[in-house]
Amino acid sequence: MGQAGWDALGLLTPKDYTSHFKNIMHHRILLRSVQPFKGSSRCRCCRTGIENTKHLATCLKLMKVWTKFHAMVTSLMGSAPLTPELIFHAVDTEGQILPPGLSALHLIMWKFVIYNLTMVQLENRPFNPEEVWKCAIRRFEVRLNALAFKVKQRAIRRSGQGINLMSPEAENRRMRPLASVGMWGKLYPSSELEKEFKSTRQVPTVPTAAAGQAQT
Ligand SMILES: [Zn+2]
């Protein structure tokens, strides 16, 4: 893993990235093409395609999550095609991993995708792409605030001790290009991210899909 990858992890906790590592990087996701459900290999989200790895990148239901992420990537990085590599591994067409902030959001997105795919299987709960995206954005906001809070605590401590404040350079590298934090821990989300934060606050949400987001 390159520096960008390590910086992305620095923004997260294991419960944000373990799901993607286990299910996607290590291919442990249990799809219906491998283990049919009630005799069917049809996709649990759209109920039309055969649920295999390739289908995950083209499924019309899942596509609503991928296009949200893709829009965020292109608004910050310039136009880029929505490829399976981007969807599965946050890697661009040149084989470069996305900057840390976007890579971190990608891992969180997958955490909620996998959780909700499991809930379709276990509780027959319909897959709701809008809700998945909102949960990912909310969790991402929690992690950004946690990092900003750390910077603030450090600034207060150092100021109390009469020593110079530290530049939050390392923290800013982890959030790049989605947000940055000031010397005193004030969080500055990019305008694209701010729009997403606002939209998650406006619409009432289904609490049952909010897996793990209350914890940090
Ligand atoms: Zn499907």
Structure description:
The protein is mainly α. It has one domain. Helix content is 57%, strand content 3%. The protein is built from nine helices and two strands. The protein has helices at residues 3-10, 14-25, 53-56, 60-77, 84-89, 100-123, 129-160, 169-175, 191-202, and strands at 179-181, 187-189. The protein has a two-stranded antiparallel sheet. Helix 4 packs parallel to helix 7. It is elongated and about 70 Å long. The two termini are 24 Å apart. Residues 212-216 have low confidence and may be disordered. The structure holds zinc ion.
Write the layout of secondary structure elements.
Layout: H1 3-10, H2 14-25, H3 53-56, H4 60-77, H5 84-89, H6 100-123, H7 129-160, H8 169-175, E1 179-181, E2 187-189, H9 191-202
Antiparallel strand pairs: 1-2
The structure holds zinc ion.
The site of zinc ion has 7 residues, from loops.
Assembly of the depicted chains: single chain
The mean pLDDT is 92
Task: Tell me the count of domains.
Answer: 1
Largest sheet: 2 strands, antiparallel
Number of helices: 9
